[in-house]
Amino acid sequence: MQQTNNFQKILKSVISENDLLTLSLDDANDEFSKLCRAFIIQFYEKNLDNKKSLSFLNSEKNNPALKLFNNFFNENKIKTPKNFSTKSDSHIWEIFCPEAFEASTKPEEVKDKILKKRKLIKINENQNFLKNPVKEILFLSNVLITTPSDFHSTNIPLEIKDELKNFKNVKQRFWYDHPIPLDALNYENEIIYGLENLDRAIAFEVKRGNINNTDKIKLILSVSVTHIGLENIALKYIKTIIKKHLNLKFINVYLFDEDVCNNINSILFTTGKDTDNIMGVNGNYGRHYTFLKYILLIWNKIVDKDVRYSFKIDLDQVFDQELLLKTTGFSIFEIFKNQKNWGGTAIDYEGKKVDLGLLAGALVNKADISKSLFTPDVNRPKNNDLLKNLSSKRVFCPEWPQSLSTESELMYRLDNIQRIHVTGGTTGITVDSLVKWAPFTPSFVNRAEDQAFVISSIKEEEYLSHCHAKDLVMRHDKHAFAQKSIEMSKFGKEIGNLERILIFSYYIQIHDLGFEILKKHLWPFTSSFLTQYPELLSGLIFLIDGSHNGKDYVNLGSQRLVDTQIFCKTQLEKQYNIEKLYWREFVNRVEKFQDSNGSLKSLINYSKV
After folding, report:
1. Element containing residue 354 per DSSP (H, E)
2. How many helices, marked H, and strands, marked E, lie in the chain?
């Protein structure tokens, strides 16, 4: 397909003739990298590789990546900026990432603007606020499990070794940021690391007299796997790890995998195939994130009415109790008890009513904690370093709005703001909010599931939001022990961010309030992933980065992005409406549910480790 002049103008505004020196066909990593380079060079007629590029593209006409480019850059099929022109004082970010352009040119003004938009007035505290964290909070986390990097490793527990052989040649189905391989060494195992540190944090509360030495917190772990059928092995693995390597004194652990979720669903919904595959923990992050929110509703109804709050952590995050106490004067349970706005209401800067049924804390990287507890975990990009070499950052740079939002919102030292930018591992919810709003992250959301959770509950005159817990900062340790897992899943994460552009942009278009209002509400970080040109933007990023990354990136991404685009155009709206009805019905059914034969309670009790 012949691309239009408009596309060529955009491409040439990003990639100069000098940049082509880094895109030699002969220096390509592999045939996949070469394909991306050839696709670019075909539009530069004076380049020495031009004819060779055209010939190579002709020989690769059936390549899935080439089909993606011809689809995502076809102006007869997708929306593109019309009458594109580049002025000397303009930047391509103005079109594809205006938040980055604004943040990079006026950072201090943007920070002030963020706080102005987040400020609340007429804050009404929750009259029935949290008083006893160990009794009233259900703690939540998720475990992501994948097959071993070495099936012959001696690190694989004997209890699962024989069963695991069946997965040696099974194709991976689901992709996560840094899943735990079943041959992980103890020091790089997130389960051991997270639970050990959490138990130590609760022991600190015992020493301070905040809880009795016989008290235990309740921790729900969702168990997600990368390969269908790995669920039972994953459960056995986690139980083995806890039994052999941990001596938990203050935590009761409960494991919920896809099978348990299916059983819960079948108890509540006895008929109707539309309810299948909505509630669960495998696959896209939106599924386990939403499930972990709703287990609070089930727990409150079936197990213990006193449990009215939940709080999610990630197992690579730590409550650094000594530093919390030294810096804020409070331990983590004391910080929780100070959150009287959690579950309250307020008025925002536009006069709209805000339900503060959600809670949000912040993170500090372990490497930065010696500076201060309140050190932003995202640094401002340096444009000179960022833009001098050819990369997709020339087109799209969400790191700019993310860094300023972190500085102004997450590090804010008062409690009179709401939070739009949140981190999934430091968020809480009240049971009343679940009942009132039936909020959810759609199951098709695979990145930024935490940012997406409130979108379903934004109405014209009132909306659900997070109150800001100014002292609630967790130490983020993932780079201290999970570096290998992070590196192994790097490309999967990058492709996930491209899917995020497609999914968020299409999702917002079907929202009752429409694109412009939602982009304004979610400004500046989440809004940077909302664009009028999702195919063109994600395609450009994929094309540029693919020219350097090669096979593992291009092969994986081309199929995933095509599948995601087809889903967005043909199924997303229908799926969203089904899930919206499902979660409202889920709330209604749990509220009315009488566990007369004890089936649901037995399921929960059986999940305890």
Report:
1. strand 353-365
2. 27, 12
Tokens, residue 541: 């990023």
* Per-residue pLDDT at 488: 64
Phi, psi at 4, each rounded to 5°: -80, 165
Whether the pLDDT of residue 362 is over 60: the answer is yes
CA distance 401 to 179: 28
> What is the full DSSP assignment across 240-255?
HHHHHH---SSEEEEE
- Give the DSSP H/E element, type plus range, for residue 430: strand 427-430
Half-sphere exposure of 540 (CA within 13 A, CB side): 28
Name every residue whose Cβ is closer than 8 Å to that of residue 79 and which is 6 or more positions away in sequence: 532, 533, 535, 536
Residues 6+ apart with CB under 8 A from 412: 115, 118, 468, 470
**Of 471, 491, 490, nearest in space to 479 by CA:** 490
Helix boundaries (H) for 392-489: 399-405, 431-437, 449-452, 478-481, 483-488
Judged against a pLDDT cut of 70, whether residue 1 lies above it is answered with no
Distance (Å, whole) CA 382 – CA 236:
46
The alpha-helical segments, DSSP class H, found in 462-550 are 478-481, 483-488, 490-509, 514-521, 534-549
Q: Write out pLDDT tens, residues 93-112.
A: 999 999 999 999 999 999 99
Residue 92 main-chain phi, psi, to 5 deg: -60, -25
Q: What is the average per-residue pLDDT within 199-219?
A: 97
For residue 226, CA distances in Å to 10, 283, 284, 406, 451 come to 38, 8, 10, 31, 23
Helices (H), ranges, 97-179: 98-105, 107-118, 133-136, 158-164
Tell me how far apart the alpha carbons of residues 562 and 560 are, in angstroms, rounded to a whole number. Answer: 6
The phi, psi pair for 311, rounded to 5°, reads: -140, 125
Q: What are phi and psi of 141, to 5 degrees?
A: -160, 175
Q: Is the pTM of this model over 0.90?
A: yes
Query: How many CB atoms within 10 Å of residue 591?
Result: 12
**Could you tell me which residues come within 8 angstroms of residue 292 by beta carbon, excluding any fewer than 6 positions away?**
140, 141, 142, 220, 222, 310, 312
Q: Evaluate whether 268 touches 590 at the Cβ level (below 8 Å).
A: yes
Residue pointed to by tokens 């060494």: 185
C-beta contacts of 155-158 below 8 A and 24+ residues apart: 155/183, 155/184, 155/185, 156/182, 156/183, 157/182, 157/237, 157/240, 157/241, 157/244
- Tell me, what amino acid is at 206? V
Quick one: which of 64, 98, 65, 69 has its CA closest to 81? 98
Distance, C-alpha 23 to centroid of its chain: 33
- What's the whole-number average pLDDT of the chain? 94
pLDDT at residue number 491:
85
- Produce one character per residue of 525-550: b if its CB has 16 or more CB atoms within 10 Å, e if not: bbbbbbbbbbbbbbbbbbbbbbbbbb
CA 61 to chain centre: 35
